[in-house]
Amino acid sequence: MPECRALCIALISVGTSTPPLRSMDSGHLWSELEVLPHVPKSFIWPKECTVDAHDELKAPMIELDGFLRGDDEATQYAAKLIREACMNHGFFQVINHGVDLQLIREAYDQIDTFFKLPIQMKLSVHKKPGSMWGYSGAHADRFSSKLPWKETLSFPYRDNTLEPVVTNYFKSSLGEDFAQTGVTFQKYCGAMKQLGMKLMELLAISLGVDRLHYKELFEDGCSIMRCNNYPSCVQPSLALGTGPHCDPTSITILYQDLVGGLHVFADNKWCIVPPRPDALVINIGDTFTALSNGRYKSCLHRAVVNKYKERRSLAFFLCPKEDKLVRPPQDIVRMDGTKRYPDFTWSDLLHFTQKYYRADQATLPNFTNWFLSFKTTN
């Protein structure tokens, strides 16, 4: 298959002493990489990106049960913890969040089945040029250096339609054998969207604006579901599962397994986020930084890899409706005395990160400069 060979070539460093991988028909891509004696050059990250983390992140574990029951005191306390975390590093975790833990386990198990498929079958749903949806091995379809040591499956979720978008995606892409996977992730994405909308209420309360201020912006948006697989790596100190970056989206709701590997940059150092099976990880993204007029920090984070164990995670990115303007509440702008970012749409920022820029810790300021320049020249 020509596209298999192209992906294979992209995943190793051309011109190094690394021997070519065997035919993709003979086995799984990552099993091929794992037997190499060293990490290919295209996967090696600069030393400043791979500095070890030693300390645990000081971030709140927020109990949501009281807020979800309508307890005012519990709501204000949760909002206070969120405000402190988001002004510091943009990261917190939630427990008693209302999402069925059994559903989370089922989703995790279902995606485990996908990642264990032969590479030929996974490549049958590979991302096509210009599309965000499908399978990607190390994002080699977009980049040629500092490749992430991971493979992903991404698909859309909308709840403003009677059509079961996720169920249909799996059935049409992978066939009836994956119908149950689609059903499970349809439920999982629905639960994540519901939690995301409740978190938007808490974020609004924490900023001192009406709790439903952000509802219209997000309720009809197309969210992104991404399943990540980080294989074991023979030289984990050289590679990264995901490089240092801030998510361009609004908030990310992440379930990580017990292997661990998520790091957050806080207090001028990388800090470890220990996994907890009953918790969901929440981080602020660039879009919500703009929606808070820069008050809340977009969380700088990375994922490291393990020499002996593979790691899986499920990331749900809550996104605004594509054509709605991203702008902070007027009350916040008035109190701050200035507006830090221009009005833009989520589709503007998405276009920038998909076509012109690889997301990192400076995505939002670089997007702002590009967007203002683009408006001036048009």
From TrEMBL:
Keyword Ribonucleoprotein in record: no
PROSITE patterns with a match to the protein in the record: FE2OG_OXY
An example Gene Ontology molecular-function term: metal ion binding
Keyword terms: Iron, Metal-binding, Oxidoreductase
InterPro entries (alphabetical): DIOX_N (IPR026992), IPNS-like_FE2OG_OXY (IPR044861), IPNS-like_sf (IPR027443), Iron_ascorbate_oxido_reductase (IPR050231), Oxoglu/Fe-dep_dioxygenase_dom (IPR005123)
Family under the similarity heading: Belongs to the iron/ascorbate-dependent oxidoreductase family. GA20OX subfamily.
UniProt-recorded name of the protein: Fe2OG dioxygenase domain-containing protein
Organism of this sequence: Clitoria ternatea (Butterfly pea)
Lineage: Eukaryota, Viridiplantae, Streptophyta, Embryophyta, Tracheophyta
